[in-house]
């Protein structure tokens, strides 16, 4: 039996993500939580003739407790999205408190659940979640994930003309670092099957993966950021976490994790100098089975991108940790 919960289920990501989870045969029970509209979203999804039993909760009447109790996997897309001209860090002021409070609920009502954080800025909201779970004495780093799958999905899509794959997802491209601008580092040199990006196209391609989110924010022109592609990516990642928990082996996907707390993470922390980093991770029954270090043998250009990424990440991580220790300072 798998119970999944979506926190922020009525939003642009929350609704299509809940739809995908509702239609997945891997999910037996699906709880939707939001500050608005969950009764309607749940009623709508409940007419779908799939396995999952669906329920919707609002904050009143112990809604968060009811949504989280007995939950195996919690996905969090709660929080405000960007408008043109904003950085993901501009969302910190509002989203930091939202994520902190929701994770406090997880610590209390479903401390053993896998926690998948989508809310931006991911580079900081995942450290916030880690600090909250640590403070409550229930932090299991193998079960906390920052969802960076959309960067991988974009890298697969934007390189299709070079990889020559009919199905862009047939190529594996590790994207490492964080989830915002220059902290996103696609490692095309490590793609399998290997392909060549022409020299004169390389810089623009890296830039497009790093700033793909801005492309959508601009096109939506004030109506938010990526929602449908994010729901696809979030579901792809959640499905792998569930499949691995059920015993399927060999499932690997990059995700933003707390390196010192996961097997294989120490080497990567030493190589990068940061504690939180997105790296390909082999998933297992208990979450992160092994963080895979693919930084050896990257190209000189990729090394330069990684240096810039790490500098940005350090500040983002510190900001998240500091927010939990000293919330009044923000
Ligand atoms: P949205 O505004 O459409 O939806 C957000 C939902 O969160 C709303 O329904 C809102 O009511 C709800 N919410 C707000 N406060 C809440 C709380 N305290 N508890 C429960 N629910 C609450 O936004 P969206 O487009 O769905 O984006 C959500 C977040 O995901 C944003 O922060 C966005 O930047 C981020 N995002 C991340 C990625 C990624 O790759 N990780 C990709 C796209 C978007
Ligand atoms: C994305 O990468 O699309 C998301 O992080 C949303 C954003 O703000 O760009």
UniProtKB/TrEMBL annotation:
Keywords: NAD, Oxidoreductase, Tricarboxylic acid cycle. InterPro entries: L-lactate/malate_DH (IPR001557), Lactate/malate_DH_C (IPR022383), Lactate/malate_DH_N (IPR001236), Lactate_DH/Glyco_Ohase_4_C (IPR015955), Malate_DH_type1 (IPR010097), NAD(P)-bd_dom_sf (IPR036291). Its EC number is 1.1.1.37. It comes from the Eukaryota. Pfam families: Ldh_1_C, Ldh_1_N. Residues 3-146 form the Lactate/malate dehydrogenase N-terminal domain. It is an enzyme of class 1 (oxidoreductase). It catalyses: (S)-malate + NAD(+) = oxaloacetate + NADH + H(+). Residues 148-324 form the Lactate/malate dehydrogenase C-terminal domain. Gene3D superfamilies: Lactate dehydrogenase/glycoside hydrolase, family 4, C-terminal, NAD(P)-binding Rossmann-like Domain. Homodimer. PANTHER family: MALATE AND LACTATE DEHYDROGENASE (PTHR11540), MALATE DEHYDROGENASE, MITOCHONDRIAL (PTHR11540:SF16). Belongs to the LDH/MDH superfamily. MDH type 1 family. This is malate dehydrogenase. It comes from Aspergillus lucknowensis.
């Amino acid at each position: 039996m798998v119970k999944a919960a979506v926190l922020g289920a009525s939003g642009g990501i929350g609704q299509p993500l809940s739809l995908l989870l509702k239609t997945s045969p891997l999910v037996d029970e699906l709880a939707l939580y939001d500050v608005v509209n969950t009764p309607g979203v749940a009623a709508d999804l409940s007419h779908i003739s799939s396995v999952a039993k669906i329920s919707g909760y609002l904050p009143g009447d112990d809604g968060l407790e009811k949504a989280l109790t007995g939950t195996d996997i919690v996905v969090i897309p709660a929080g405000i999205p960007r408008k043109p001209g904003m950085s993901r860090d501009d969302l910190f002021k509002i989203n930091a408190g939202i994520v902190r409070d929701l994770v406090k609920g997880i610590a209390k009502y479903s401390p053993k659940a896998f926690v998948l954080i989508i809310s931006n800025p991911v580079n900081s909201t995942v450290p916030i979640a880690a600090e909250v779970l640590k403070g409550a004495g229930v932090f299991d780093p193998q079960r906390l994930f920052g969802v960076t799958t959309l960067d991988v999905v974009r890298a697969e899509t934007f390189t299709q003309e070079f990889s020559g794959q009919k199905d862009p997802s047939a190529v594996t491209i590790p994207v490492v670092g964080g989830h915002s601008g220059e902290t996103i580092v696609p490692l095309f040199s490590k793609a399998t099957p290997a392909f060549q990006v022409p020299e004169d196209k390389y810089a623009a391609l890296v830039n497009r993966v790093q700033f793909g989110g801005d492309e959508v924010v601009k096109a939506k022109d004030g109506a938010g950021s990526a929602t449908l592609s994010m729901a696809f990516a979030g579901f792809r990642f959640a499905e792998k976490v569930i499949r691995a928990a059920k015993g399927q082996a060999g499932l690997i996907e990059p995700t933003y994790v707390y390196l010192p707390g996961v097997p294989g993470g120490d080497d990567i922390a030493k190589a990068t100098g940061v504690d939180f980093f997105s790296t390909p991770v082999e998933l297992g029954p208990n979450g992160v089975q092994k963080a895979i270090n693919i930084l050896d043998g990257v190209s000189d250009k990729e090394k330069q991108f990684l240096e810039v990424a790490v500098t940005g990440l350090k500040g983002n991580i510190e900001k998240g940790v500091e927010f939990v220790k000293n919330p009044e300072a923000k």
